[in-house]
Amino acid sequence: MAYAERSVPGSDAVLWSASGAASTWVLPDGCLDVLWTQDPTVPYGLLVAGPDRRAWTSGATGTMVGLRLAPGTGPAVLGVPAYALTGRRVPLVELWPAARVRRFAELLHRDPERLTALIELTRGADPIALRVAGLLAAGSPVGLAAAEVGLSARQLHRRSLAAYGYGPKTLGRILRLQRALRIAGSGASWALVAAESGYADQAHLARDVRDLAGTTLGGLVPHLS
């Protein structure tokens, strides 16, 4: 399968495209994607992929274009809390009025990259959720992130479910694993990866890989290129 992605200027979103037929391994990343696909079983060709807790394998075929929305921004675009979509693949027509989806699908039929028009809607995202996501991505402990934005642990958890689809500890673990994979992709040893990405030790990293990715450290290697 041919795959390409690029950052969208002025946002934290990523526009990606895939074509061909192959199994694709998808790791949880805290993001929510809106997809345009040629799959005739998807109404109007528009599908929403909610935030994942664990890795999964996609067997999609044909051509797809997707907009990956940064943690905390998806609910503003779709009009539903992220927890309603966690681990799910939902036709956009179940979230938006059919007439609106049809008009958007007609626009994308002419130019699928017009998915980036959705970024305008992310301006309505919860600013505290965006701040917390940034702190967690940088490696801040959940307690410190909560204190930074003036929320109690319970308040932050409730806000996180709506913004990310799971609690802040889960999002923090997912973002830490993403940091680890970026470092591992440079060829660093697993011990160095663990130290630089915020794990207590290599065994701690291995446990998170097993829990979130469903594989071993060695099993990750083919996916790092």
Strand content: 15-25%
The total count of strands amounts to 8
Give the averaged pLDDT, no decimals: 93
The secondary structure category is: alpha+beta
Q: What is the end-to-end distance?
A: 14 Å
Measured as a percent range, the helix fraction is 40-55%
Provide an overview of this structure.
- The radius of gyration is 18 Å and the shape is globular.
- The chain has helices at about 75-80, 100-110, 125-135, 140-150, 155-165, 170-185, 190-195, 200-215, 215-220, and strands spanning about 1-5, 15-20, 25, 30-35, 45-50, 55-60, 60-70, 90.
- With about 220 residues, it is α+β, with helices and mostly antiparallel strands.
- The mean pLDDT is about 95.
Keywords:
19% strand, 9 helices, single chain, two-stranded antiparallel ribbon, alpha+beta
Quick take:
The longest helix has 17 residues.
Explain the layout of strands and helices.
Elements: E1 2-7, E2 14-21, E3 24-26, E4 32-37, E5 46-49, E6 56-58, E7 61-69, H1 74-78, E8 89-91, H2 98-110, H3 127-137, H4 142-149, H5 153-164, H6 168-184, H7 190-197, H8 202-213, H9 217-220
Antiparallel strand pairs: 1-2, 2-7, 3-6, 4-5, 4-7, 5-8
